[in-house]
Write a structure and sequence with these properties.
The complex is a heterotrimer.
Chain A: H1 4-24, H2 33-46, H3 52-61, H4 65-74, H5 84-98, E1 104-109, H6 115-126, E2 133-139, H7 142-150, E3 152-154, H8 158-167, E4 178-181, E5 184-187, E6 195-199, E7 211-216, H9 225-238, E8 239-247, E9 262-266, E10 271-274
Parallel strand pairs in A: 1-2, 1-7, 2-6, 7-8
Antiparallel strand pairs in A: 3-5, 4-5, 8-10, 9-10
Helix pairs in contact in A: 1-3
Chain B: H1 10-29, H2 41-47, H3 55-81, H4 88-135, H5 142-157, E1 161-168, E2 171-178, E3 188-190, H6 194-202, E4 206-209, E5 218-220, E6 223-225, E7 229-237, E8 240-249, H7 255-399, H8 407-438, E9 446-449, H9 450-468, E10 471-476, E11 483-486, H10 488-504, E12 510-518, E13 522-529, H11 536-541, H12 551-557, H13 563-573, E14 577-583, E15 587-594, H14 621-630, E16 644-648, H15 652-664, E17 668-672, H16 675-685, E18 689-693, H17 701-710, E19 719-723, H18 728-734, E20 738-741, H19 746-761, E21 765-770, H20 774-784, E22 789-794, H21 797-806, E23 811-814, H22 823-832, E24 841-845, H23 851-858, E25 861-866, H24 871-883, H25 892-903, E26 912-916, H26 920-931, E27 936-940, H27 943-955, E28 963-967, H28 975-984, E29 993-997, H29 1002-1011, E30 1015-1018, H30 1023-1033
Parallel strand pairs in B: 10-12, 16-17, 16-18, 18-19, 19-20, 21-22, 21-23, 23-24, 24-25, 26-27, 26-28, 28-29, 29-30
Antiparallel strand pairs in B: 1-2, 1-8, 2-3, 4-7, 5-6, 7-8, 9-11, 12-13, 13-15, 14-15
Chain C: E1 11-16, H1 20-25, E2 39-43, H2 53-58, E3 64-67, E4 78-81, E5 87-90, E6 96-99, H3 111-122, E7 126-130, H4 139-147, E8 151-155, H5 164-172, E9 177-179, H6 181-191
Parallel strand pairs in C: 1-2, 1-7, 2-4, 3-4, 7-8, 8-9
Antiparallel strand pairs in C: 5-6
Classes of the chains: A alpha/beta, B alpha/beta, C alpha/beta.
Chain lengths: 278, 1036, 195
C-alpha cells in the first residue's frame, strides 16, 4: 500500500509533466516514471520548491524556468568511449562493413554533452572514414547541444577518457585531439566540422536522413515501452538495409515491437543490424 | 580636528581674554618703564591649555599689538610730559624683547598643544586598532570579516556609508556594504576599472570631493542622498592589494581618517589573508574528504569485486570436481552405449536378413500365385472344352430321342447333365477369379439403362422366388438417374450373384433389390434379405475365395464359394465398392456402390504391372492394382517439356481432385497410390514437384520423403506434404517445402500449386561482371555463381557492351577502372543508347569516391560498394536483392505499368459474374469495383432472378456465367435456397459461388457452405479479400 | 511486525557493500524457491566490469537469480541483482528500470536509488535490508522505506565486516531494527510465509 502522500505526489508529477508538455511541447510523459521522478525531486530541491505543484507553478510562470529545468530532465552522464568494448566492436566488426559505402551518415541520437559524438568522430578519423561521413548529433536539450558543440570537458575526466580510448583499440593518443587550459580540455574543432547539431525529439519528431549507423546509448532506458517502440521504429525507418544500430549495454530490442526487423550483430555489445528484406 | 581636542573650558578663554585685557589696561596706566606688558605672557601661557594650536599665536599677536599700541600711546604721553627720566630707547628695547619673548612663548605653546594633540591622535589610532583587532578576532568567514571591518571603519571615522571589496582572482568582489543605496555600488570591479580599480592597481588612496554620479550613495528609509566626499583606500599587504574600502562622508575627509586607515591597513590585510588561507584550507580539507570518500567507495567496489572473484574461484573448483565426476560417469555410459550400439547393429543386420528373406519369400509366393492363376485360367479352359461335349452328349442322352433307354438310364443321363452344369459353373467361377487375379478380365463400358437392367433381373429371379415362396421386391429411388455408364455384363453378374445368394440363404420373408443415388452422383445397389445372416467372424472372411460359410452351409446350400469373391473384385474393377452389413439370423444386406460413369476406356491392360517391384506387404496385389486402375493419369502421354506433378495419394477421390486441379493449372499429373509406386515413379519420371500424402497403405509418406531426399537424382524435387495428422515439423525437417493438413481447402491447394509454379518458373538468373583483374573475376564468379545464378564476365568496356547488346542480364556488377574506358563513361553510354539492355548496376570499386562522383554514379546505380574486407559479403547481398527484386523496387515507369496491368486483372478480364444482391448500394459498389477490372456483370435482385439469369445465360455459350456472388438475405428467395437450387442442377454443380453474408457467426458461414457455396465473405466487404476470393474461385 | 495489506504487491530490497558476498550467502540461500516476493539487491560493484553476482548466487539459491534487465516485469520468487554501472529502479507498475544517472555517494548502482524508488512503488509492502558496508549509501533510502510504512532491517554493526553502513543506517532511520544475519533470514521468511 502506498501512503496518500506518495499518491498525491504521483498526481502532482503527472500534472507537472503535462504542464511542461502543454506549455513547452517537451514531452516527458512517456518516460520511465521512477527516473523522471528522481530527477524532478532534485530539481524541486534545487529550485527550493516544497512540492511538484510549486515547481509546476514556477515552470509555468517564470519565463526562463524551462531552460533551467530541462537539464534536470535530460541530464545524461556519459564518458568518452564509455564501455570500450562497444567501441572496439564498432571498430573491428562494424567499420569494415561501413567501409564499403562511398559516403556515410551516422546518427548519434541523444548526444547530450557530446562525449559519444567525439568518441565516434575520433574512431572514424582513426579508421580513415571521417572524410566521407556526416554525423548527426541530436538531443532535445539545446543547452546540451551547445555543450556538445563546445567540446569542453573538465580536465580530471580526461584520465578516464584516455584509458577508455586505449581500451577501445585506439590507434592514436587521445591527447592528439585536445588542448588544455584553465583546468579544461578543449577538443579539436576539426572533429566536429562534419557534424550537424540539431534539436530533435525521439518522442515527437520524424526521421530526417537515411543513415548507415545509429548510436543511441542509454537513452532508451529512460523511455517506457511504447516510447521505446517509437524510437526504435524511427531508427528502423532511418537505417539503410543492413544498417547498424548500437544501444546501451543494458538495453535490448528483445521486447521491442521491431525486434523482427533487426538481427543481433554483436549480441554482447548490443549492436544490431537491420534485416536485409527489400 | 575636533576628534582629538577636548572642549576648551570657557573659563580658560575668559581667563585668557580677561588677563589680556587686564594687562592691556594695566599697561596703559602704567608709566613707561614699568614693564607691565611682560604680563602678556600670562594669557599666552594660559593658551597652552587650550586645544587649538594657533591660539597661542593669536594671543601672542594680540599681545604684540597691544604692546605696540601701549607703547605709542605711552610715548606720546612721554613726549608731551617731557619727562625725560625715562629712556625711550631702553623702553623700545624692553618692549621688543617682551614681544620676542611673547612670540617664543606662543611658539612653545603651539608646539606644546601640537604635541598634546599628536599624543591624543596616537592614542585614538591605538584605540582604533585595538577595537578593530577585537572586532575581527576569532575564526570569521570572509563576509563576516568584511561586515566587521566596514562597521568599525564607518563608525570610527563617522562615515555615512561604505563598502568593502575583496580580491578574488584578478578582480575585486563586493563583500559587504554599509548603509549603501541599492545599486550604487558595483558587484565587482577589475583592476584599472574606474577609481576603485585604479586605487587597487596603484595601491594608493583617493579622496574625492564633490562626488560625481555613479559612486556610492547613502540609502536610508528617507531615500538616498549623496555623500559629498569619498575616500577610497586599498588595503595592501606585502605589495598586493587584497581588499579595497570605499567610504562616503558628508564632511571633508580628514588626515586622521586616512591615518587611521593606514594604521589598520596591515591588520585588515592580515585578517583577510588568514581568512582566505583558512577558506582554502577548508576547501582542500573538504576536497580531500570527498576524494577519500570516493577512494573509499572505489576501494569498496574493488573489495566486493575481489570477493566476487574469490567466490567464483570457489564455485569453479566445485563445478570442476563435479564435472570430473560427471565425465567419469559419462565415460561409463559411453561404454555401455557402445555395447548397445553393437547389439543393435547385430539386430539390425538380423532384421535386414529377415526382411530380405521375407521379400524373397513374398516374391516366390507372388510368382507361385501367378502361376496358379495362369494355370487355373488355362486349366479351366482346357476343362471346359471336354466338359462342353460331355454336357451336350448327356443332354442328348437324357432326351432319349430313340427311346431305347430305360427310365433309369435317362435319370442317369439327367444326373450327368446336372452335375456337369454344376461343374461348368464351378469352372466358370474359377476362370473368372483367375482371370481377375491374372489381370485378364476385360471391362467394356457402355451406357446401361437402369430400367432394362432391373427388369432383366426381375425376370430371372421372380420364378425362383416364387418357387421358394419368397417375396422379391425391386425398388428404384425416383431421384436416381436413368442410366449409368459401366460394364453391363459384369454389373449383371454381380447383382445376379448377390440375388441368387440372397434367395439361396433365405427360407422365408423377402429379398429386396433397391437402387438409389449415393454420394452425389454415384449409384447404390442394395440387396437385402431376411435370411440366415452372417456372423461377424465370417463377415471378415466371406469375400475370400473358396469360402463357403461353414461346412454345413455348403452342404445345405451348395455353391462354389467363389461368387462373393468374384463379385467384390468385379465391383472394384468397375470403380466401386462392395459392402456388407449383416446380423446372424436376421438377414444380410450387400451394397454395391458404383460411380455414375466408369472410365473403363483402358480396359484391363495396365491392370497388372509386371515390372512393379514386389512389395514386402504384397497380400493385396489385386486391390493395389485395382486402385491404379481406378485413377488413370498422364503417364501415357507425357509431353517432354511440360511440367509434371506426382501426386502420391491412396484416397482416390482426393487424388482425382489434385489431378483435376493440376490439369487446370497446366501441369501434367501422375498418380501413385503407394509408397513404393511413388518412389518408382519419382525415379522414373523425375517430376517437377510432388504432392505427398503421409498415410499410405504400405508405408509412411515420410519414409518416401526421406528416400527422395536421400537420392541425389530426386533430391531437388520440391515436395509438398499433405496429411490428416500434423507431422509438419518432421516433414519440414526432412526437406518438404510445405505442409497442408487435411481436410485441404481448394484455395490452399491452388496456393500450393502457385508456389510450386513460381519455384519452377524461376529461371536461371544472369549477372554480368565487368572487371579487368582476372583474379578478381574468378573470385566474383565463385562468389556469385550458384545453381540458379550464372555469372558472366566482361573484362573491358567493349566486351561489356557486346554482352549487353547480345543478351539481357538481371544485374550487372561494374568495376570503375577498366582498361579501355572509365566506368563513368560506360554508364553514360549505356543510359544514352537504346541498343543496350541496361540492367540494374552495382558499382564495385576499389577507390574512394568524391561526393561529386558519387552523385554522378547514383544516377545510374542504386548501390555503390567500396572494396574491402566486408565488400564480398555486401556484394553478394546486393546482387541477391536485385535478383529477387520485388515490385516496389522497380523503376517508376515499370511500376506504373505493373499497376495498370494489375488493375486490368487478367484473371477477371472478360469474365462473367452474376451478382445476386438486393442492396442497391452494394450492387453499385460491386459494379464499379468489378467493371473496373474488366468483368462483365449480370445483376439479380433475389434468388429467383438469379436462377432465371443462370438459365438464360446457359442458352448462349458466350454469355455463360463463370462465377456467382450470392447475397444471403434477399427477398422472395434467399441465397441459401438459391444455392441449393443451383446445386441440384447437374450442369451447375461446379459453378463457383461465393456467399456474401452479413453475419459473422461461424454457424452462419457453415450454413452457406452446406447450401453449396464454395466460399463466403463477411460484410462489410473487404475489397481486397473479395477480389482475391474471386481470383481463387474463378475457373481458368 | 508490520505487514502490508494482503493483496498489494510486496518486495524485499537489500543493499550491501564490503563483505556483501558473505553476508548475502547467509541470507539468500535460506529463502525457499517459492518465496512469495521478489528480492532486489544492490551491491556496490565496480563500473568497468560485468557483475558476476547473479551467476554466483544462481547455483546456490532456491530462488531464481538473475541480473535485472530494463523494463522487465518484477516477479515473485526471483532475486534481481543490479548490473554494474547502472542504477536499479522500481517503476510504479512494478517493472524494473535501469538508469545512467550520476552516481550517488560515488556509487552506481546506489542503494539509496533502489530503496527510494521501491519505497514509492511498494509503500508499506516493502522490507528494506541494509547489510555490511563502509559508506553511508542506503541510510536515506532505508529511512524512506520506513517513512512509507515498510519494514527496516539492518545487520547488527558488530557482526558486519563494514560497520559504517549499518551504523549510519541505524543513525538515520530510528525505527530500523538491528539483527544478525541468521535473524534477518528468519525475519524475511516469517514476513513472507509460503501459502
Amino acid at each position: 500500500m502506498k501512503n496518500s502522500t506518495t499518491e498525491t505526489e504521483e498526481i502532482e508529477l503527472q500534472l507537472l509533466l503535462e504542464a511542461i508538455y502543454r506549455k513547452y511541447q517537451y514531452d516527458f510523459r512517456d518516460y520511465s516514471p521512477a527516473s523522471i521522478k528522481r530527477r524532478l525531486m532534485q530539481a524541486k530541491d534545487h529550485f527550493g520548491c516544497s512540492s511538484f505543484s510549486q515547481l509546476q507553478h514556477q515552470a509555468l510562470h517564470e519565463p526562463d524556468s524551462i531552460s533551467r529545468l530541462l537539464p534536470f530532465l535530460t541530464v545524461q552522464v556519459s564518458d568518452m568511449f564509455r564501455d570500450p568494448s562497444y567501441f572496439r566492436s564498432l571498430r573491428e566488426k562494424v567499420i569494415p562493413h561501413l567501409k564499403t559505402y562511398p559516403s556515410l551518415k551516422v546518427w548519434i541520437a541523444g548526444c547530450s554533452a557530446g562525449e559519444e559524438l567525439y568518441s565516434l568522430a575520433i574512431l572514424f578519423r582513426e579508421e580513415g572514414l571521417e572524410s566521407r561521413t556526416i554525423f548527426y548529433a541530436t538531443d532535445i536539450n539545446s543547452a546540451a547541444l551547445e555543450k556538445a558543440e563546445a567540446g569542453v570537458y573538465d580536465l580530471d575526466r580526461l584520465a578516464l577518457f584516455t584509458e577508455n580510448h586505449r581500451r577501445s583499440g585506439g590507434k592514436s593518443s587521445l591527447s592528439d585531439y585536445y588542448s588544455t587550459g584553465y583546468g579544461r580540455a578543449i577538443f579539436d574543432k576539426s572533429l566536429r566540422q562534419r557534424t550537424v547539431f540539431s534539436d530533435h525529439s525521439l518522442v515527437s519528431d520524424a526521421v530526417f536522413a537515411e543513415t548507415q549507423l545509429i548510436s543511441c546509448r542509454n537513452v532508451l532506458i529512460y523511455f517506457n515501452r511504447d516510447l521505446q517502440d517509437r524510437a526504435v521504429g524511427l531508427f528502423n525507418e532511418s537505417l539503410v538495409r543492413k544498417g547498424f544500430l548500437g544501444i546501451g549495454s543494458k538495453e535490448s530490442l528483445r521486447f521491442s515491437a521491431h525486434a523482427d526487423d533487426f538481427t543481433e550483430f554483436d549480441r554482447e555489445e548490443r549492436i544490431y543490424q537491420k534485416r536485409g528484406e527489400a | 580636528m575636533i576628534r582629538f581636542e577636548d572642549k576648551t573650558p570657557p573659563a580658560l578663554f575668559v581667563g585668557v581674554w580677561l588677563s589680556t585685557v587686564a594687562v592691556a589696561i594695566a599697561d596703559y596706566y602704567a608709566p613707561m618703564g614699568v614693564a607691565i606688558f611682560i604680563l602678556y605672557m600670562v594669557p599666552v601661557v594660559l593658551t597652552f591649555f587650550t586645544w587649538r594650536r594657533m591660539i597661542p599665536f593669536i594671543i601672542a599677536g594680540v599681545g604684540t599689538a597691544l604692546i605696540a599700541m601701549d607703547y605709542f600711546m605711552a610715548a606720546e604721553v612721554l613726549v608731551a610730559s617731557e619727562t625725560q627720566n625715562i629712556d625711550i630707547q631702553i623702553a623700545q628695547w624692553n618692549r621688543g624683547f617682551g614681544v620676542i619673548t611673547l612670540w617664543m612663548l606662543a611658539g612653545i605653546g603651539h608646539l606644546f598643544i601640537r604635541n598634546r594633540l599628536m599624543a591624543r591622535m596616537e592614542a585614538w589610532l591605538q584605540a582604533g586598532e585595538t577595537k578593530l583587532a577585537s572586532m575581527i578576532s576569532g575564526e570569521q568567514r570572509l563576509d563576516e570579516l568584511g561586515d566587521n571591518v566596514l562597521k568599525f571603519v564607518v563608525e570610527y571615522l563617522d562615515a555615512q556609508a561604505g563598502a568593502i571589496f575583496m580580491a578574488d582572482g584578478g578582480r575585486y568582489q563586493r563583500c559587504s556594504v554599509y548603509a549603501v543605496a541599492a545599486g550604487s555600488v558595483p558587484e565587482n570591479f577589475e583592476l584599472e576599472h574606474g577609481l576603485l580599480g585604479q586605487a587597487a592597481k596603484d595601491g594608493r588612496h583617493f579622496v574625492v570631493n564633490d562626488v560625481p554620479d555613479g559612486y556610492l550613495s547613502v540609502g536610508s528609509s528617507l531615500g538616498e542622498s549623496k555623500p559629498r566626499h569619498l575616500l577610497i583606500k586599498p588595503i595592501s599587504l606585502e605589495g598586493s592589494v587584497n581588499a579595497v574600502l570605499e567610504l562616503g562622508f558628508f564632511k571633508p575627509v580628514k588626515d586622521s581618517d586616512v591615518a587611521l586607515l593606514k594604521s589598520v591597513e596591515s591588520l585588515i590585510g592580515v585578517a583577510v589573508r588568514s581568512v582566505k588561507y583558512r577558506m582554502r584550507l577548508q576547501e582542500l580539507l573538504e576536497e580531500t574528504q570527498r576524494q577519500s570518500e570516493e577512494v573509499q567507495a572505489q576501494s569498496e567496489e574493488l573489495r566486493v569485486s575481489n570477493e566476487e572473484l574469490e567466490e567464483q574461484g570457489r564455485a569453479l573448483r566445485e563445478s570442476q570436481s563435479r564435472l570430473e565426476l560427471q565425465q567419469a560417469e559419462l565415460e561409463q555410459i559411453n561404454t555401455q552405449l557402445e555395447e548397445q550400439t553393437q547389439f543393435l547393429e547385430r539386430q539390425k543386420n538380423d532384421l535386414l536378413e529377415a526382411k530380405s528373406d521375407a521379400e524373397r519369400q513374398a516374391r516366390e509366393v507372388e510368382i507361385a500365385s501367378r502361376y496358379k492363376s495362369d494355370f487355373l485360367a488355362n486349366m479351366s479352359h482346357e476343362l471346359r472344352t471336354p466338359l462342353n461335349s460331355s454336357l451336350i452328349l448327356a443332354k442328348l442322352l437324357a432326351e432319349n430321342a430313340s427311346g431305347n433307354l430305360t427310365p433309369e438310364q435317362v435319370k442317369y443321363a439327367t444326373t450327368i447333365e446336372s452335375a456337369g452344369n454344376d461343374l461348368l459353373t464351378l469352372i466358370n467361377d474359377v476362370l473368372d477369379l483367375s482371370k481377375i487375379e491374372a489381370g485378364h478380365m476385360e471391362i467394356v463400358t457402355e451406357p446401361v439403362s437402369l430400367k432394362q437392367l432391373v427388369g432383366g433381373l426381375q425376370n430371372t429371379f421372380e420364378p425362383v422366388a416364387g418357387q421358394k415362396g419368397l417375396d422379391l421386391r425391386i425398388e428404384v429411388d425416383p431421384e436416381t438417374p436413368r442410366s449409368l455408364v459401366t460394364d453391363p455384363q459384369r454389373l449383371e453378374q454381380i447383382l445376379k450373384n448377390l440375388l441368387s445368394n440372397a434367395l439361396k440363404f433365405t427360407e422365408r420373408g423377402s429379398v429386396t433389390l433397391r437402387v438409389s443415388t449415393h454420394a452425389g452422383s454415384g449409384f447404390a445397389f442394395q440387396v437385402t434379405d431376411t435370411g440366415i445372416g452372417i456372423t461377424e467372424d465370417q463377415q471378415r472372411i466371406i469375400f475370400d475365395p473358396f469360402f463357403q460359410g461353414d461346412g454345413t452351409t455348403a452342404r445345405k446350400y451348395g455353391g462354389t464359394g467363389l461368387g462373393l469373391s468374384i463379385s467384390r473384385n468385379l465391383v472394384r474393377m468397375l470403380g466401386g465398392e462392395l459392402k456388407l452389413t449383416s446380423e446372424l439370423g436376421k438377414g444380410s444386406e450387400f451394397t454395391v456402390l458404383l460411380p455414375a460413369e466408369h472410365d473403363g476406356s483402358k480396359g484391363g491392360e495396365d491392370f497388372y504391372v509386371p515390372e512393379r517391384p514386389i512389395q514386402s506387404n504384397s497380400s493385396q496385389p489385386v486391390s493395389v492394382s485395382y486402385q491404379r486402375k481406378g485413377t488413370p493419369d498422364d503417364r501415357e502421354h507425357l509431353t517432354g517439356d511440360s511440367r509434371v506433378i506426382l501426386t502420391v495419394e491412396d484416397d482416390i477421390s482426393f487424388a482425382r481432385i489434385v489431378y483435376d486441379l493440376a490439369r487446370e493449372m497446366d501441369f501434367q499429373c501422375l498418380i501413385a497410390t503407394t509408397a513404393e509406386e511413388a518412389l518408382v515413379l519419382a525415379q522414373q519420371y523425375l517430376p517437377s514437384a510432388i504432392v505427398l500424402d503421409v498415410g499410405l497403405p504400405d508405408n509412411s509418406g515420410l519414409l518416401v520423403l526421406e528416400r527422395l531426399k536421400a537420392d541425389s537424382r530426386t533430391r531437388h524435387i520440391p515436395v509438398h506434404v499433405v496429411s490428416a495428422s500434423d507431422y509438419s515439423k518432421t516433414a519440414l525437417a526432412l526437406g518438404a517445402v510445405g505442409y497442408m493438413l487435411k481436410p485441404v481447402k481448394r484455395e490452399h491447394l491452388i496456393e500450393t500449386f502457385r508456389k510450386l509454379e513460381t519455384r519452377l518458373s524461376q529461371k536461371m538468373r544472369r549477372v554480368l561482371v565487368v572487371e579487368d583483374d582476372p583474379v578478381q573475376v574468378e573470385a566474383m564468379r565463385d562468389l556469385l555463381g550458384s545453381r540458379d545464378v550464372e555469372a558472366i564476365c566482361a573484362q573491358t568496356a567493349a566486351e561489356c557492351l557486346e554482352q549487353l547488346e547480345r543478351s539481357t542480364f538481371d544485374c550487372m556488377v561494374l568495376d570503375l577502372s577498366l582498361p579501355d574506358a572509365s566506368g563513368f563513361s560506360l554508364l553514360e553510354k549505356l543510359s544514352a543508347e537504346d541498343t543496350y539492355s541496361f540492367p540494374p548496376v552495382i558499382v564495385y570499386t576499389g577507390r574512394q569516391l568524391t561526393p561529386d562522383e558519387e552523385q554522378k554514379l547514383r544516377r545510374y546505380s542504386k548501390s555503390i560498394i567500396i572494396k574491402g574486407a566486408k565488400s564480398p559479403e555486401r556484394l553478394l547481398d546486393e546482387v541477391t536483392l536485385f535478383l529477387h527484386q520485388v515490385v516496389s523496387d522497380l523503376p517508376l515507369e515499370k511500376q506504373k505499368m505493373l499497376e495498370k496491368s494489375n488493375n486490368r486483372d487478367a484473371a477477371l478480364e472478360g469474365r462473367r459474374i452474376l451478382i445476386a444482391e438486393d442492396d442497391v448500394r452494394n450492387v453499385y459498389a460491386l459494379t464499379s469495383l468489378l467493371e473496373g477490372r474488366g468483368v462483365k456483370l449480370q445483376i439479380a435482385r433475389n434468388g429467383h432472378e438469379a436462377l432465371a439469369a443462370l438459365d438464360e445465360a446457359a442458352k448462349d455459350p458466350e454469355k455463360m456465367v463463370n462465377l456467382v456472388l450470392m447475397d444471403i438475405m434477399m427477398p422472395e428467395m434467399d441465397g441459401l435456397t438459391a444455392m441449393r437450387e443451383i446445386r441440384k442442377r447437374r450442369e451447375w454443380q461446379k459453378l463457383p459461388i461465393i456467399a456474401l453474408t452479413a453475419k459473422a457467426m461461424k454457424s452462419d458461414q457453415e450454413q452457406c457452405i452446406q447450401a453449396g457455396a464454395n466460399d463466403y465473405l463477411a460484410k462489410p466487404l473487404d475489397v481486397d479479400k473479395l477480389l482475391s476470393l474471386i481470383r481463387v474461385w474463378m475457373p481458368r | 511486525m508490520k505487514t502490508g495489506s494482503d493483496d498489494s504487491p510486496r518486495a524485499v530490497v537489500i543493499g550491501a557493500s564490503v563483505g556483501a558476498i558473505d553476508a548475502l550467502t547467509s541470507i539468500l540461500p535460506l529463502l525457499p524457491a517459492e518465496f512469495p516476493a521478489p528480492v532486489l539487491v544492490v551491491v556496490h560493484v565496480p563500473a568497468d566490469r560485468k557483475s558476476m553476482l547473479a551467476d554466483l548466487f544462481n547455483d546456490r539459491c532456491g530462488m531464481r537469480v538473475k541480473e535485472a534487465e530494463d523494463k522487465e516485469i518484477i516477479e515473485a520468487g526471483t532475486v534481481y541483482f543490479a548490473p554494474s554501472d547502472y542504477h536499479l529502479l522500481v517503476e510504479p507498475d512494478f517493472s524494473i528500470s535501469l538508469s545512467s544517472d550520476e552516481p550517488v555517494h560515488y556509487s552506481r548502482p546506489a542503494i539509496d536509488v533502489l530503496f527510494e524508488t521501491a519505497a514509492d512503488a511498494y509503500g508499506d509492502g516493502l522490507v528494506g535490508v541494509i547489510l555490511t558496508g563502509a559508506n553511508r549509501d542506503g541510510a536515506n533510502g532505508l529511512r524512506q522505506v520506513a517513512d512509507e510504512g515498510g519494514l527496516a532491517l539492518v545487520q547488527a554493526p558488530y557482526t558486519a565486516e563494514g560497520q559504517t553502513m549499518p551504523n549510519s543506517a541505524l543513525a538515520t532511520c530510528a525505527t530500523a531494527r538491528a539483527l544478525t544475519l541468521p535473524q534477518i533470514a528468519e525475519a524475511l521468511n516469517q514476513e513472507f510465509p509460503i501459502h
